Fold this protein.
Amino acid sequence: MSFTQLQTPLPMTVEDKGSGLAVAVIDYGSEHNLIWVVALDDSGEIWCAPNPKVRMQSNWTMGRSAKTAAKVESLRPAAVS
C-alpha cells in the first residue's frame, strides 16, 4: 500500500458528493482501484473515493470539458457462494 500526498491539490468532482480538491491518493495494489482523498468545497467533508467515482473538473484552457462518466465495473471479483 502506498499513500501519496499531492504537492499541488487537483480539482476533482466526486460523483453524488460534489466538487473539491484531491489532496492525496492511496494505492492498495493491482487488484484495487486507486482511492482519491478529496476535500469537498461546499461541506468541507473529506471523502475517500474510488477511481471510477472521481473526475477532473472541466478546464476550458486545457480543452477538458465536463462529460458524463462511462459505467465502470468493479475490479473486485464477484463473491463465490
